Amino acid sequence: MSKSVSSTPTATTGHVMIPLDRLIKSPDNARKTPHSAASLAALRASIAAKGVLQNLIVRHERDDAGAETGFYHVTAGEGRRLAQIARAKDGEIPRDTPMPCVLRETDDAHEVSLDENVTRENMHPADQYDAFRVLNVERGMDAAEIAARFGVSEHVVKQRLRLGAVSPVLMQAYRDEKLTLTQLMAFTVNADRARQESVFERLSGVYAEPYTIKRLLTEGQVSSSDRRARFIGIEAYEAAGGLVERDLFTESGGGYFTDAGLLDQLAFERLSAIAAETQVAEGWKWASAALDFPYGQGWARVYMEEVATGGCPRSRNRRHRSASGRLSAGRHRARRHLCQSR
Questions:
Q1: Are 15 and 98 in contact (CB under 8 A)?
Q2: 143 near 154, Cβ under 8 Å?
Q3: Based on the domain organization, do 52 and 77 belong to the same domain?
């Protein structure tokens, strides 16, 4: 039994509900590159939450004699068709689910397809932030719920919501195309909106890379990638009363340590404890700690030379060489100190 098409459109145009399994891809579709899996997944989630919001544009399929076959070519809306087919394959909807369509026989099919894919503009990220904030704050939806209902990734939703940390002055500058999205995101590294506006005014009239904006907003602070910060760790630093300005657009754990003095103190105390343990465990006469290795006391490359043996039995009549055939200055100094201490 053949399936009927609802409504009674004219021969060339009209709104009509057509079963999903009667819709096929148009050979005149301007999009030759397949839809990405991510875009189809997002579209599928959106349709599942709110249904098909935009009509598909279709025209009759005809055989070689010009007679209608009962199927319809999708001139515009192939992504929606594919998303619904995926849902039908997974058993979410019937294969003959009615699809809202507009029958257009007189328009050039290729031009219609091209127009749908070219002459459109995505929603501005600032407007996305406003819309998502309403859903998040006023309706209590989390990022995952918003993403599922509106066909975008959860990552995008979280990034847009994080824009709430910037000053309204900067948000307006972004809308006015005085800032790029990456520049705007850089301002979130410091929650002080007055400081954000101050840096924005300071950079007025010049293009500033995001790292420059972050540097100006974090002057006097220490990055979480700093060796002292990695040595102590955020948890120990915060436990000692330190504050961390989080970088909202980096992975968890990123940010800036606001109290460099406290960080230095914690690092020195931990190094001192390690030095004391090492002195006892390895039997050294003394051991000391320093945040930065004293100048001239590090490993250095020197060329082989005669070494005065003095009275030290360990070094008498011996040349000290590194594995590469050169003297290891640090190793030589250590031996000299040992000899002097005896």
A1: no
A2: yes
A3: yes
5 within 8 A of 19, measured Cβ to Cβ: yes
Q: Residue 277 belongs to what domain range? A: 220-285
Sign, CA torsion 282/265/267/240: positive
Of 285, 307, 332, which one is at a domain's C-terminal end? 285
Select the more confidently predicted residue: 341 or 245.
Answer: 245
Is there a contact between 318 and 309 (Cβ–Cβ < 8 Å)?
Answer: yes
Q: Give the dihedral sign, CA 51/97/117/11.
A: negative
Instruction: Phi first, then psi: give them for residue 259, nearest 5 degrees.
Output: -115, 90
Contact 165, 245 (CB under 8 A): no
- Domain end call among 60, 90, 118: 118
Scanning 78-233, the segments in alpha helix (DSSP H) are 78-89, 109-118, 125-133, 143-150, 154-162, 168-175, 181-186, 193-202, 210-217, 227-232
- Summarize pLDDT for 173-220 with one digit per residue, the tens: 998 889 998 899 889 888 889 989 999 998 887 888 988 998 888 888
Residue 55 maps to a domain = yes
